[in-house]
Design a protein that fits this description.
4 helices; 8 strands; elongated
Length: 166
């Protein structure tokens, strides 16, 4: 996925990008990802006043493991994408989100990969009220209740508990 900044800056025009990307090299080593599909990029390139802005959405279907119960969770990530590029650095465009480009064409793949990487859930959950797995018997508490004693005792107060035993 490439854009030619030089042509866009001089003509001040708009272009559409619709591409599919395989992210196997980026996401293939992730343990929490069971499966992922092809990334669909629907982007618009707008050139105005020497700045080229690429905006749009990235869509990626993923299957993750719930962090609490280890069940599979299917989601479609819709990622907002926005990057800005220019050929000439001036005092007016000292924005931190403005990339100064020295070579054409500009490869958007690293920017897309970063957006995808940042959008992946850090702690995926099948639902907000997921009960998780019992630490004693290993049963999924969403599917059935276990009879394990779930007494939580602060280890700092464990010595005091011995005082009340008879």
């Amino acid at each position: 996925m490439h854009i030619n900044i030089k042509n866009l800056v001089t003509k001040e025009q708009t272009a559409q990008l619709h591409e599919s990307m395989d992210l196997s090299d980026l996401l293939g080593d992730r343990v929490d990802l069971v499966a992922f599909g092809t990334l669909e990029a629907d982007l618009q390139v707008v050139s105005e006043l020497g700045i080229v802005e690429v905006v749009g959405f990235l869509t990626l279907p993923v299957t993750l493991l719930c962090s609490r119960c280890l069940n599979q969770v299917q989601q479609t990530l819709t990622i907002r994408f926005r990057e800005r590029f220019t050929k000439v650095a001036t005092e007016d465009n000292d924005d931190s989100d403005l990339h100064i480009v020295k070579e054409d064409p500009v490869d958007l793949k690293p920017f897309v990969e970063e957006a995808v990487w940042m959008a992946l859930p850090y702690i995926p959950l099948c639902s907000e009220d997921c009960k998780g797995i019992c630490p004693d018997c290993g049963v999924n508490r969403n599917e059935q209740d276990c009879s394990c004693k779930q007494e939580k005792l602060d280890p700092r107060l464990a010595g005091l508990a011995d005082l009340f035993k008879e």
